[in-house]
Amino acid sequence: MSKVHAPEVRIAVIGAGPAGVYSSDIFLRQLAKRGEELGLGTSARIDLFEKLPVPFGLVRYGVAPDHPSIKFIADALEKTLDNPNIHLYANVEFGKDVALEDLLARYDAVLFATGAVEDRPLRVPGADLDGVYGAAKFVEWYDGYPTSKRTWPLEAKEVAVIGGGNVAMDVARELLRDPDYLRAHTDIPDDVYEGLQKNQTQTLHLFIRRGVAQAKFSVQELREMEKLAGVQIVINEDDFELDDETIEVAGNDKLTRQMVEELFAIRDMAEDMEDGGNVDFEGNPANRRYVIHFNSAPVEILGEDGRVKAIRVERTVTSADGIMSRTGEFEDYAVQAVYHAIGYHPAEVAGIA
């Protein structure tokens, strides 16, 4: 008696970023292992629909161009797309070029992997002033996103970046990095290079609401920060006065412990930079300052004639378990631009709850 083969499983995936590509790879692997057991067979075709001309989403357009791991991630995604059972259709936008009812009529399942592309709003007074920017749009600009603006205002000499994660670190680094370094070591677009050559940033304040042990920086990002030519790192020594309980809690998690250790190394580096006469990591005179503020929660952006002129920050206290308390102590910092990197909103897909 001949064996009856299950028909080919057909899957449509909306979005060819990392989530869409990796989900396709995982599905094919699981189908090969368990397809027969589940009565699905082991044959499948996956069609990826991407609205941009090229795949890989945030890996290509959402991470700083000098991030050292990007090439490895992109190479891995490229290998996945080499699978003959995965087919990419670029420049195809869901809701415009293809509709849900059409996909459901042709596929056994439809997976939405449209990512998170919009900035979470900054909910403080003054967030609507000229000179306040979400990190997502800035990242799109310096990564050459197809629909991003071709120029970016970089006249501010004093800048604030709000956020305690890697995106905030990326934004700060690109605002302080020598554009000639980026030109030599990355593939930034010509218009971005030309724009960064006009960058006037001299002092950058990074504000993190919680303490040293509660930040979410990767060690890799911190080490990139340590090697910025012409940049002096400035810290507040009080931020590094951690109690025994906080140190113990941080030590229970390997990644947190490594991050804290690296931050303390940066503290020592900052002290050496000051003692050396305000120099950079190589001992050369610094012409830009990178001021890192922990336990500092921005509460208002102050303006004049509709533009940013300062940011008001409240001092906070963070317990060992990460609970933040406000102190009622405020300080204003003169800045002409504010970038917020406080998270992304998932993309909204019309007709999908």
Percent in strands: 25-35%
The SSE order reads EHEHHEHEEEHEHHHEHEHHEEEEEE
Spatial order of the strands in the main sheet?
6-14-7-8-10-9
Low-pLDDT regions: none
State the name of the first-level CATH class of the largest domain.
Alpha Beta
Number of domains: 2
Structural class: alpha/beta
Helix residue percentage: 25-40%
Q: In total, how many beta strands?
A: 15
What sort of overall outline do the alpha carbons produce when their principal axes are compared? Answer: globular
The radius of gyration computed from the alpha-carbon positions, rounded to a whole number of angstroms, is 24 Å
The name of the CATH topology of the largest domain is FAD/NAD(P)-binding domain
The N- and C-terminal alpha carbons lie at a distance of: 47 Å
- The oligomerization state is single chain
Largest sheet: 6 strands, parallel
Rounded mean pLDDT score: 90
Question: Mind explaining what this structure looks like?
Answer:
This protein is of the alpha/beta class and about 350 residues long. The protein has 2 domains: about 10-115, NAD(P)-binding Rossmann-like Domain (Rossmann fold), CATH 3.40.50.720; about 120-345, FAD/NAD(P)-binding domain (3-Layer(bba) Sandwich), CATH 3.50.50.60. Helices cover about 35% and strands about 25% of the residues. It has helices at about 20-40, 55-60, 70-80, 100-105, 135-145, 165-175, 180-185, 190-195, 220-225, 245-250, 255-275; strands at about 10-15, 45-50, 85-90, 110, 115-120, 130-135, 160, 205, 230-235, 290-295, 295-305, 305-320, 325-335, 335-340, 345. The strands form 4 sheets. The protein has a 6-stranded parallel beta sheet. A 4-stranded parallel beta sheet has the order 3-2-1-4, with helices on both faces. β12 and β13 form a beta hairpin. α7 runs antiparallel to α8. The radius of gyration is 24 Å and the shape is globular. The two termini are about 45 Å apart. The relative contact order is 0.14. The model has no long low-confidence stretch (mean pLDDT about 90).
